[in-house]
Amino acid sequence: MLSLYLTYPDWIDPYVINGLPVRWYALMYLVAFFVSYLLVRYQCRHDGVIEMDADETQSLFFSCCLGLLIFARIFSVLFYSDGLYYITHPWMIFWPFRDGQFVGLPGMSYHGGVVGCVLGGWLFSRRHHRSLLQMTDLATAAIPLGYTFGRLGNFINGELFGRVTTKPWGMVFPLAERFSTYEPWVRKVADEVGMEYELGQLVNLPRHPSQLYEALFEGIVLFLILWLVIRPMKNRRGLPHGTVFSFYLMGYGIFRFFIEYCRQPDASIGYVISLGKKGNGSIALFESFLNISEGQVFCLLMIAAGAVLLSVLMARRHYDNGKAGKSERHPQRKRH
After folding, report:
1. Tens digits of residue pLDDT in 248-264
2. Integer angstrom CA distances of residue 333 from 196, 325, 327
3. How far, in Å, CA of 291 to CA of 310, rounded?
4. Would 179 be classed as within a structural domain?
5. pTM of the predicted structure, to 2 decimals
């Protein structure tokens, strides 16, 4: 029988060096920070809209990265984990060991990372007397390309895979949940992709490689839009600070919202809005666009925040331009 799916490459090892507790995912995070740092330094040297030396840039990155790590972990605990456990064991929130093994920080929320990064930028801006919106523009023009490496790290770890699919690029991930072939929908999917099985067997069905979708759209595509279109347009037309940040919030929110339909919600949470049909009773399969996950709600909030911020910035710019034009038409008379 012809197999119409891909198998996760067996030569990929999540550990950089066998025997050492260093994963490619952690290394990819470092690469992401480094790439973003280089892009910020490039803007400081070539755009001519801000003067900031290497020391200040490093201070900015330290504040933002620290806020990112703290709030990404806190949001994960609050919204995606067993909150009761962490209320009674608060020291475990940032404890990187489980059962005597180093596991790092298991569970990081992107949306929490955005909040932490903005707060870190705000603290930096207050301390160095900089414009917060200018700092966010500087950072968000660079972040998506760095984010690409983070999602590649997820793929190497074989985690955060998507829903079950019959698409020919669907991939069988070793760590994915297995389903019983007693379930009619499981047999239907297995038959469509040419997977051999026995009745009653637990099978690992192909999934959307959603980490790669995110790396492409939330990473590379969004980076190209911000870097090659929005950033030059802002510099050329003198648009207000915060413009790039606004488009980043809206762009990321839109891409992530639709990619979430390919990602399986956490089983313990499911859908926060469930208005669509429920055919097979499993969240492993896409059923309706009206079933909304918690991550999608956060994406809608990002889109709304970006749209409101951009509207306020444009309205203020229009008001300031109108005020300046009025002053030119009616110059104040000098008193003699």
Report:
1. 999 999 999 999 999 98
2. 89, 16, 11
3. 29
4. yes
5. 0.88
